[in-house]
Amino acid sequence: MIETHPRGGRTRLRDVAAAVGLSSAQVSRALAGFGDVAPATRERVLRAAQELGYRPSARARALRQGSAAMRRCAVVLLGTTSEAFGRSAQGGPILSGILTQAPAERLEVHLEAVPLPPHGSSAERERAVAEALRRLVAEDRGDGFIILTPASTTQDALLPFDEAQVPYVVVNRHFETRPVNCVTIDYAFAVRAAVEHLVRLGHRRLAALLPARDSSTVRDRETGWREGVARSGLVAQEAPIVRYIDGDPGSARRVVEALLSTGLPGSGKIPTGVVCHTDTLAHAVLQAASAAGVRVPEQLSVIGIEDVIAEYLTPPLCTFDCHLHQMGVATAALLGWALEERGAAPRREMIRPELVCRASCGPAPAP
Fold it and tell me: Is 304 in contact with 310 (CB distance < 8 Å)?
């Protein structure tokens, strides 16, 4: 049994060569299947490569082919395909921003879609993420990585990058217990500003519609809601956070229908203002209100977050522009900095959303 590679990071060709007592050139020819390598030698090299976890370097192949890049940036799409992410509300603008800034940072960008198991526990998904990222590091898929994912991501899943000391930036996620290079939207500011906007319009019975999952994007919204409620002097029972099952449109619709028919969980009073996790959820609220005969904004004011589909809804939605293109620009710039300043303390860049007032908000209805 060959001793596994003791150092952090990826196993290199010279490590395999040292293990079998051959030159790197001989090992390279054995792995490439050249006919001048004895079968027994090739078998010994292949066995050593497998036991050491060696994978051919994509960078080395590019150099051999004369197509050396500036600095390779692998945009890792966790739990989605490139096509699906490009169609998503956030995907297209963020990728556009990354590509816009890439030349200034000397980055050559390519996508790495990493599927995740559709079912299983969070621990199983975390292991699948870590294994996928470890494979990308082992295959030398990038000089730096950008992590994009619609799903919750834990910091432990990113350990392969830390162990290999490969620079990376996480988009739209941050971790309280261990800082990483990341670019996030200031959701706390947006939700706090939404509460204050509705209170200025005279609303006193509000609800925040948030998914029942644990992620930094949800926690930030929770923080903003509680701060906004406290600052505005609202009664907590008449300004609750109401949960729905993430990824289940039927759950969101049932929650909205219950709010409009039986009222807030604590007081039983019908809310006059709702702040939604996303514009997509706000669309479901507008549909449920229309079906229930509740007029927007005369009886119910609705605010979303994203500003991707908002202007096309009926009525046009009051929401927060999250400047997603700017987010992509900041992400590429941060990775460029991380590649230059290896070992520097991680930085978190925050994008401040901007309230865009349209027709879904109005003065609170008379009692």
Answer: yes
pLDDT in tens, 343-363: 899 999 999 999 999 999 999
* Cα–Cα dist 230/210, whole Å: 18
DSSP 210-256: EESS--HHHHHHHHHHHHHHHHHT--GGGS-EEEE-TT-HHHHHHHH
Strand partners, 110: 74
**Cis omega before residue 297 (within 30°)?**
yes
Residues 302-347 pLDDT 10s: 999 999 899 999 999 999 999 999 999 999 999 999 999 988 999 9
| Residue that the structure tokens 């904004």 belong to | 297
Assign 279 to helix, strand or coil. helix
Between CA 293 and CA 364 the distance in angstroms is: 17
Three-state secondary structure call for residue 112: strand
pLDDT at residue 58, rounded to an integer: 63
Which domains are seen in the chain, by residue range? Answer: 13-54 (1.10.260.40), 69-185+326-352 (3.40.50.2300), 187-321 (3.40.50.2300)
